[in-house]
Amino acid sequence: MSVVSGQLQGKFSEQDEEPKSKTYQLRTADDMTIFVEERGDVSNPTIIFTHGYFTSRLAWETTFTSNRLNRYHLVRWDLRGMGDSSKDTDLDKYNNLDLYANDVKLIVDDVLVKKGNAQNNQIFLVTWGTGSIATLSYFRNFTTAGVSGYVSVANNFQSFKVDNIFTEYSRVTIGGVVTSETYMLILDSLKNLFNRFTSTTNPLPPPTLSFFIGIGAYAPTESRLAYGQLDYNFTETFTNLKIPTLNIYGDGDQIVNPVHSRSVAALRPNDVTHEYQGVGHAPMWEVPERFENDLDNWIVFPETL
Questions:
Q1: Residue limits of the AB hydrolase-1 domain (predicted)?
Q2: pTM for this structure?
């Protein structure tokens, strides 16, 4: 493994002309709307990006706008209650894992319909952090039909209530995010959490930190409270997947304990794992070029790297 060091490399797009995308909404069976953004030719392999809790689809900004991935059909979406997806004051709209599974299925099915009889109907699901609850709930409920591979980016496969899954600092901080009732306490908890997204030697620049705090603060109280209630363990689901998987995480992750990430990777010893040295919880922001190259190479050769 090579050592990664230096300043944070990910930043907002400065290209002369950003890749053009289109947005739309999908309506769920429980009358929520899921906001989706896509770019690229749908006849190409599709990559669906799922973000973690307390963020939005914009967490994938560096990857989604990268010209390195222009040969793919890229899709990113907002979890229910986050970003531009609809908000609801009903706690039951957020505390049921089956609802997240249904949301992922809604997006996958929509892409499959658009692909029609396209020669290349591959779909890869890429999930960051706590977004694993949505993707792995989908796999648990609906198997892997229609999906060609799964990419875990600093995922946690068990609830933050379980010892040694998250770092102790992030457990306390997430606890503050999901239980705080005053605006300033919520913002302070989010700031403390996002301050640990990168490794200790590679802090988020103030504008990027403010960006994450802003999208985190946009989630309704009920969505935050629901995450504190969720209890899950997806290790068996992950172990039994019938598709190739790619695991990417940093040994300097201050949110998800790297020990947990290594134990998860060990569940599928024949699949591909990249442990980035000197990198924290957000490899797509910290080392975007390496992250995109590893993702691209794995999609081309998912079982041989």
A1: 47-291
A2: 0.91
